[in-house]
Amino acid sequence: MRLILIVLRRINMALRILRGEIASLGLVIALSAFVPAGAHAGSTTIAQAAEVARIIERKWQAEGLRSDDKQTGQMLAEASRTVTEHLLEHGDDVEALILGAKLEFFALDASPALIDVGPGKPPLEEQFRPRAAAIQLAHERLDRAIRLLPDSAEAHFWKSRVYMLKALVTRDGMTSLVENMDGALREMQLALQLDPGSERYAMQVVWMLMQYRQDVSEAARVAKGLRQGTHPLARLLARSLPELAAIPLPEDSMPWPAGLESASRFIATPQLPLRTVLRLVPGRIDRVEAFFAKHWSGFVLHEVEPGNTKYRGQWLHWRDGQIEPATIEQFRAMKGYPSHGMVMIVFESDQLPADESARTNFPIPPDRIYCILMITNMRSAPDP
After folding, report:
1. Domain range list for the chain
2. Tens of pLDDT along 258-289?
3. Which of these, 83, 134, 230, 277, is most buried using a 10 Å CB contact count?
4. Separation of alpha carbons 290 and 293, rounded Å
């Protein structure tokens, strides 16, 4: 099983690299086509600027944007100049207003928002003045687009994305970088209301509800509209998550990493998408085994690696609506991951995870021994 984990990680990494290389190749082609050698500012057309935005958006989705990517920076700067010049003469062009805001978003997303309070550094407001101006410009363009075309779902979508950019905010004398997630969710919900059939908007609304509002029931309601409830995310919310939420957990366990677990105890991040419980449990692995043995007859944690008693697992499959632990023969006969039931993995350690949330929130057990408990619902298809 450990080998399978490693292989899956490498496959996922290879796919991400491939997607990134494809996006980068598109950017190279676009650069040569739209900004030939010796080109001067304003030499691209508004249609070419729109194509640049489309290619950069694909790159952003595949691998993200980086501040040290000079090629992308050149593309963004040239396209932004083109749109700004176009809007001077055509200020009511809704598509150009949205395009200009998108380009501002990409430029800001590529530049990390960092607070530098070192000796001799300028005041924070001065450091962030250019970023604040760019965010304001993006909002102003989108606000104008919405006034001109109130039913523009795309304008609301990009306004949501701009709200998700980190901005400098001072509250109660404390200055910090924060995202306006209330505004982001509101705008994304408006986009979905205007275009109820958009899977793109619906997916964003579901993720925001899960991650920031922790509203499972509302997320499930929205997800029902994804492919008439047949979308994998809709199935997860409708069936997998209630199953996972029903799994008992030790009362003295805590979510880990802190802040990533929703009210229904499962992780809601792209890396652990909506079907994984991850907890820190004080005590030895035998204590975890004894806890679950009280709930399911015949429960035993089997060695994942023969001879390693501190790394054990179990497959909890469903039979007649009830959870049934796997025997050692069934566990060893598993080829890859099953397509149903729960996979439980438990690690015992005497070294707390390095992240701050574990060190500050998790009480150190008297014997300094604790376990990492991970339970993943493997459901991949709806019940017949």
Report:
1. 15-110+129-149, 151-230, 244-377
2. 544 444 455 545 444 557 788 889 899 999 99
3. 83
4. 5
